[in-house]
Design a protein that fits this description.
heterodimer, A: mainly beta, 3 domains, 31-stranded mixed sheet, five-stranded antiparallel sheet, 13% helix, B: alpha+beta, three-stranded antiparallel sheet, 2 helices
Amino acid sequence: MLSHFSPHKQSGLSLITVLLLTTGCAILVFGALNASLTQSRLSGNFQKKLNAQLQAEQSAIEQFHALNQALKDNPNADMQALAATINQQTVSDADGRARLAKIDTSSLTPTDLRLQTLGSRFTDSQSTQQVLFSLRGSIGTPALPFKHALIGCDGVTMSGSGRISGFDSENSSAQNIDLAVHTVRPGGSVTLTGSAPIEGDVLSRGNISVKGSALIKGRVHANGNILLDNASARILGEVWAGSQLQVTNTVIVDGEIRANSGIQISNGATFNGGIFSRQGLTITGGPTVFGQTAVLGNIKLPAWVANGNYFRDKTAVRYSGSTEHNFGTHQPQLTVQAVPLLPEDNSLDENQQTRKLCDPIGLSAQLQQLSVPSGLTPFDVRRSWDQRRYQFSASQGQYLDKAEAKTLQKPVSARFAGSNRNIYFLQRLNLDSDAVLTVDGAVTLYLQQGMSMSGAAQLVIKPGASLTIISAGKIRLAAGAKVLTAENGNEAPQGLVQGQPVISIYSSYQSLSANDYGVELLGAASGLYAAIYASDAHVSITASNGFSGAVVGKTIGISGNGNIRYDQALGRIQSGQTGTTGSGRRIVLAGF
Amino acid sequence: MLNMTSIRGFTLVELMIGLVLTSVLLLGVGMTFASIRVSLNNVSQLNNAQEVLRATQQILGRSLRSAQTVAVNGNVLTVQQQNPQNNQPDCHGNLRTAGAFTERFSLQADQLMCQVNNEADQVMVAGVLAVQFNISAQLADTGKPAAVRLVLAPAGLPARYPQRLEERPALTLDFALKTAIVQWAT
């Protein structure tokens, strides 16, 4: 018997001690495990948060690129329009990444756009990021290439007898059409030899010669000399010469005549608005003068004029120098206002820096930016008697009479004059014989070496369609060719179609000699309506059937008996940007 | 009657065996306990180091993300904030409503401090033994900082950690100056 050491009497001190120690260990270990688990969760959550944060930032950068692309596509867009391009839908992928951009519309200003971008990675983490984008740079002043009726940078010659008048195709009741004939560069002169009435101003940085029996309803204003030499010419406005004014015929001027370098009158002209000269007045004929006469310097005139009734109010004649035959009143302190000189190469518009008259859109620079495909081939519309009717639509060009012909043309998207458009690139376009080219839709043709129409060829612009021709070569529409801008040919031209002229011709051709015409319209058109822009090319219009639109040319020569009608609606067409102001626009990330 | 054979003690050999077994058991458990305590201590220290890293990453990441430019001088980092919206929080957590401000991060007595403009320093993170700031990338043409590299020695990192700063185990964190980079790119 084990009375003392029976099992229930042994205490097992070692075992208890070990048990206690083990228990202590376990408690410590569990505690530490718990702390580690917490840390692991904290770290895991932190990583998720980081991932979500990266998604939110990714969204901000994506919107940033989208905004800049939208601005590139439309350099004139305002912040409102740019904000409208932002995709506010959730973008997600299979790996659990999701991001979303929201516009804070309450804080949308013309320069600032605030976005809230939300990012998440899996469903249990989210991050929000505030982003501020700013629109830098200013909108360029849009160029108005057809603001004036006729702009001959180096000169305008009019020898026709058709009326030069204006209308507004978008507002038939428009009054006071701003119809002006301009020359731009110094020395660019206007010569009017025909009998064409002009219902507007004639403005020249060089000289003006009125040799035809024209009726000019506006002002005749030259920085150089003015010659009035026609018995039946009549000018309803003022005649202002920056240099000399010479009157050699019996012209009638209803406004004042004013010159900075002297006035010579050698015939019996009529001046209803007085005579103002800053450098003497020489009269050898017998003019009829109403109103004031003020002359700085001397007055020279024969006795029979001084004593006759030619100056109807002799008391109103004043001079500061000397006179003959005791004529007029001597006023040594007399002042005569000078003729203001027309600003060279800039119009009198409010923004002289940007609204150039001659080449306001910078055509050659625009064409340099145009990426022209290489290996262009010429295109003769008429192939045979049964393959001669071709049609360009907005998306493709094909033969109408031989649809199976493989001469399909496809346009290429390119940027011109401030807008993206689909352009057909061709080397040359020839329409001869009985070829018919139809335009259906808004069509733009780039013609590397120009275009010619001859024979009885027809160019038909369907109602609602418009044709823009960008040419680096010559454009010649010979006499027999017809351009039909209305469905049945002889009706009034359509004018503007969706903000585009029915036909616009942009030519970068550089004329080398006087008869080297870049754009030549030889009476082709029945009521041709076109906006012609060829600031480096001579433009010749023989308007036997009338011409409507506007012309910018290096020189403009107009002959024929057809009427020239300027469409004031063209003056509102904006084309691209001028200067560098527009291109400086960009979206910047102002801050997270 | 006393039966001598019924009361038997342990022999010396038995006692010795018992003693040895008990000693081995106690020694084993005791050593295990000690090593567990060391491990737990390490875990706790690592946890601290992690906290330091997370906090540092968060504070500096937020600040440098919106930074216009930074300047580095030894273990002092100066961050220029443009504050375009006039509602940017600074490192103290205050909304700045009056334009640009400067945050200056520095190490003082194992604490990463932040000073806004000329206001008083405030503790951002404790348990930082050493820091070193570097400009780790620059913008191509302007040469302005594009990224900041921070080498950080948090308290509690195991001594055998490979990277070292001032003889202490350390870690590297890289921060991109995202605003400055995107602004440069435009």
